[in-house]
Write a structure and sequence with these properties.
By secondary structure, the protein is an all-alpha fold. It is built from 4 helices and no strands. α1 (about 5-15) packs antiparallel against α3 (about 40-55) and α2 packs across α3 (about 40-55). The protein starts with a helix and ends with a helix.
Length: about 80
């Protein structure tokens, strides 16, 4: 995917949100990912993070994984059962 296709894809994802900026370059993508308020668009944020990694040539690491279901509860339970 080239950059123009990526920006078009990202803008399409953000169409249904209230994000106020049209993505036109890699700096706009970085601004979106660094803006804590962008995390409220959780599905779009994860997908845009993956597109950014692809565009920037980052290693194939999934930095935006889906949260595991029940993981938090599991950790809480194991902490409460620990012998101190």
């Amino acid at each position: 995917m080239d950059r123009k296709e990526a920006y078009d894809l990202i803008n399409g994802m953000l169409e249904d949100t209230d994000y106020p900026i049209t993505i036109k370059n890699i700096g706009d993508v970085e601004d979106f990912l660094l803006d804590d308020s962008s995390r409220r668009f959780s599905d779009q944020y994860a997908a845009i993070g993956r597109i950014y990694d692809e565009l920037s040539g980052s290693p194939d690491i999934d930095r935006y994984p889906e949260p595991p279901i029940g993981k938090e509860e599991e950790e809480h339970r194991s902490a409460s059962n620990a012998n101190f």
